[in-house]
Automatic annotation (TrEMBL):
It is an enzyme of class 4 (lyase). Keywords: Carbohydrate metabolism, Lyase. Its EC number is 4.1.2.43. It comes from Arthrobacter cheniae. Pfam families: OMPdecase. This is 3-hexulose-6-phosphate synthase. SUPFAM superfamilies: Ribulose-phoshate binding barrel. One of its GO terms (molecular function) is hexulose-6-phosphate synthase activity. Pathway: One-carbon metabolism; formaldehyde assimilation via RuMP pathway; D-fructose 6-phosphate from D-ribulose 5-phosphate and formaldehyde: step 1/2.
Length: 207
């Protein structure tokens, strides 16, 4: 299973600093949606230039204009970009078209999708490289939240999937056991007192 760090900071400088600390422990470096909105797609270019050996993931959360938004993300240096599962099929197909033209990949983020199993199968058929079983920061903050629903949806869908939703050392083993291709960790790394140690501990937990 691959480990993806989600960088939900707000400046290119901070993103480069964090990526420099944790890159050796992760396979995929994600530039979070708030970061891309605050800093622009130049942050994707900066990270790809600093870490050409890593898979760079632009969390665009595209909802419309799929081909156009995917094209600009891939031109900026992204290897993977996200489209929302709630988008129209034509938006997802457009992003997949751009991915094929660049030899890159589209990840469909199932945040906010009620029936994640059905949608996962549909978007995989449209050409998604994998789906993200995702509970966002706001959903995670609700009382009683846990990862169980995401993990069972991933296992049931039988398509390649990642899991994002506050993954931490205590839960990353469950993500691996559910059969995920990628575990995503944001806050568990960037909010840690020692992000490099936090990333190493996550890596060690799935080694
Ligand atoms: O895309 C996101 C929020 O929409 C986050 O990057 C993703 O949820 C991973 O961060 P965390 O591990 O803190 O949940």
């Amino acid at each position: 299973m691959k480990l993806q760090v989600a960088i939900d900071l707000l400046t290119t400088e901070d993103a480069l600093e964090l990526a420099g600390k944790v890159a050796e422990y992760v396979d995929i470096i994600e530039l979070g949606t708030p970061l891309i909105k605050a800093a622009g797609l130049s942050v994707v270019t900066a990270i790809k230039e600093a870490h050409p050996d890593k898979i760079v993931f632009a969390d665009m959360k595209t909802m419309d204009a799929g081909e156009l938004e995917a094209d600009i993300a891939f031109k900026a240096g992204a290897d993977l970009m996200t489209v929302l599962g709630t988008a129209d099929d034509s938006t997802i197909a457009g992003a997949v078209k751009a991915a094929k033209a660049h030899n890159k990949g589209v990840v469909v983020d199932l945040i906010g999708v009620a029936d994640k199993v059905t949608r996962a199968k549909e978007v995989r058929a449209l050409g998604a490289k994998f789906v993200e079983m995702h509970a966002g920061l706001d959903e995670q903050a609700k009382p009683g939240f846990d990862l169980k629903g995401l993990l069972s949806a991933g296992a049931e869908a039988r398509v390649p999937f990642s899991v994002a939703g506050g993954v931490k050392v205590a839960t990353i083993g469950d993500v691996q056991k559910a059969g995920a291709e990628v575990a995503v960790a944001g806050g568990a790394i960037y909010s840690a007192a020692d992000p490099a140690l936090a990333a190493k501990e996550l890596r060690d937990a799935i080694a």
